[in-house]
């Protein structure tokens, strides 16, 4: 029976998002999976993250506790899902599976994947107004909110255009709010 693990040699994950490190094989009838381990080598050292054997699933490195899982009930799919990636998760991960054959001898295979954790640049911001149209009566309340995607932290700054290309800094929040508009609030904001 010919068995091989397959998976990419490197993968990029996005900081604070989740990533799957693929590792899979095509099950063969006369071979029974005995153990599955995922180990890592990174700046913090090395160790076994996860082990599945006849006693169940065990997460052995505390920094991965509650953050890793392997599909259940998907024979041959032994991929590692890591939630909320940290920069310190970058490193080299090894998936190792052992099988027992009909003669009770063990077969072991492993593959290695390097994980890079990247930050995503912020997208161009979108300004949303609470009401359609930006002509409002005096005394009304309104707000503008700024939205951008990307890796945190994202900071916002609101300005009002002044005479001769000057700009006045108004706020460093994602929302600019006017509880009660005055005619002098008319202008161009960015």
From TrEMBL:
GO molecular function terms listed in the Swiss-Prot or TrEMBL record: complement component C3b binding
Gene Ontology BP term (one): negative regulation of T cell proliferation
Q: Which residues form a coiled coil?
A: none
Q: Which residues form the Ig-like domain?
A: 17-112, 125-190
**InterPro entries associated with the record:** Ig-like_dom (IPR007110), Ig-like_dom_sf (IPR036179), Ig-like_fold (IPR013783), Ig_sub (IPR003599), Ig_V-set (IPR013106), VSIG4 (IPR039939)
| Listed Pfam families | Ig_3, V-set
Name the chain's protein: VSIG4 protein
